[in-house]
Amino acid sequence: MAFPDLVAGSGVFLAFSAFALVSSITPGPNNTMVLASGVNFGFARTIPHLLGISGGFALMVALVGLGLGSMFSHWPWTWQVLRVVAGAYLVWLAWKLATSGGVQDRQVARPMGFLKAAAFQWVNPKAWVMAVGACSTYVLHGNVWLNVLMLAGIFAVINLPSVAMWAVFGSALRRWLAQPRVLRVFNVGMALLLLASLWPILGAHHAG
Fold first, then answer.
1. pLDDT tens, position by position, 77-111
2. How many domains does the chain have?
3. Is residue 162 part of a domain?
4. Residue 68 is assigned to a structural domain of this protein
């Protein structure tokens, strides 16, 4: 790679890192769910959930960058199907969160595991918007495979501590939410935020 290309590529990856940080740390379905998980289960039990988010999303970025995201351009109806499926699933998750038990149920309930959290990225509208937007904007034309894998790796490295901050914050709130009634109110609030996160995402007409 020539020196000017190297400099240009470094600038692109630096800009992409800023994009990854902002998009990972701002509110969305993943962060709302890990915040609630931190409150209900503590940080340690939420770690598989965090790893599943970062690993699953890195895989999504890689596959979208290698061509999967082009299906939205060739078949626009697939984006509409995704919106409906994702919306229905997130409504179901919000209902489960809103009707979850109090402190006494923490030991029998289970936080989301690695595989389920990784699979959730494929029905997470914000994840699709982030992945398609990142790949369409920041993938360089030369050596696409290497560039896509670098973007996926950067996203994984930045995404993990970003979502972990939400789990840490939730875990810190546990002692303030020890009362079952207060915890239920919190869970209902998180469920409403989960539903609210759908509005700007599902209101879009396309993925980019």
1. 766 776 677 777 778 878 887 786 554 455 446 88
2. 1
3. yes
4. yes
Is residue 207, in this structure, part of any structural domain at all?
Answer: no
Q: Locate 89 and state its tokens.
A: 């699933």
Q: The domain containing residue 45 runs over which residues?
A: 30-103+110-202
Q: Residue 179 and residue 158: Cα distance in Å, rounded?
A: 35
Joined tokens for residue 110: 């289970």
Q: Is residue 129 part of a domain?
A: yes
The full length of the chain comes to: 208
Least confident segment among 1-5, 46-50, 108-112, 143-147: 1-5
Q: pLDDT tens across 113-148, in order?
A: 999 999 999 888 888 878 887 887 777 666 778 888
- What gap in Å lies between CA 82 and CA 108, rounded to an integer? 32
Phi, psi of 119 (to 5 degrees): -65, -30
Q: Is the pTM of this model over 0.90?
A: no
DSSP 121: G
